[in-house]
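SEQUENCE AND FOLD
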Amino acid sequence: MLGALMGIVLRSTAIRVEVLPARLGDCILVECPRGDGRPWRMLVDGGPPDTWDLLQARLRELPDPVIDVAVVSHIDSDHVGGFLPFLQSPLADAVADFWFNGREHLPDKAATKRSVAQGNSLMAELSASARPRPWNLAFDGGPIETHPEHGFRVLRVPEGPTITVLSPTIKRLTILGAKWHETVERAKRGRAAAAAPDAPLPLVDLRKLADEKTGRDASPANGSSIALLVEYRGASVILGADAFGNVLGAALCQLARSRGTETLPVDAFKLPHHGSQNNITTALIGIAPARHYLVSTNGDTFRHPDDTAIARTVLAGPPGATLWFNYRNRRTKRWADGGLRRRHDYSVRFPDNDVAGSVLELPERP
């Protein structure tokens, strides 16, 4: 009553996004409230192997164990490492559907389906005859990919969100098929930790940083990333995984045109590839302007997020946007400089501590 008298509109949360601290990787929990009291819930990736203890503890805190969708965005150690022990735990029994493009979903049929024998533990766990897991049920057991004509694929969850697949394309799955064995072996080896401490330079000229010429991501694994747009009760978030910027941008352009608009504004955008300059372009940020940009990394190994990528995000994003980092460190805290924020009209949020992660609650919109 008091809120109404003061002209304040109190809105319920439509989408809750929790970016767990998964070191250099991704581990994201998404929830959408529903009328029956139990939220629709999606887990995206499991981070590197040492994320499992944190993920397990977080899942055991949930009031109920059900996960409607568990997504492995692509085969890479910093996304799948913590997912394997999850699959081997009793917690996986409460998952209604696993989304993952395995060897059998790839267009290249020249190679035989030897991936389990080649050490693909993830596929072995999903397809184990003793306890086969529900796998890509929402896609009739087929591949998760964009529509070859429309450039995106829309899935409407009954009494839940609308999910649009923005990546991968059939072309990227074909390339992964040709490199499947090498990709699996690389994921099994993991990544060595960076040898020297990070020593980022001062942030002086963001325009110069944004305009720096950079390459494009060429990793077959990253190109096969499952990237999603989740929309519910007027709220929206893009989960970019490690997808290629040009693939994401093309899908978002076509989706915007299908809705009769030039751009596709969203509430939140989890930036692809941990803020890599090879995946984030000015054009990508411009086609999907967001109120919040999420970065998932502590900078291990590859020193992400790149200054060039964040400069592009700040300059091409809308005024007043917020950068959400799931770690406060020497690389990320420079972006909280007061003069820099005032000059470019953005804000920065950090977690309360190194094990809290970032939690963003997106309100319902008319």
The chain has one domain: 12-108+134-191+199-363. Confidence is low (pLDDT under 50) at residues 1-9, 110-119.
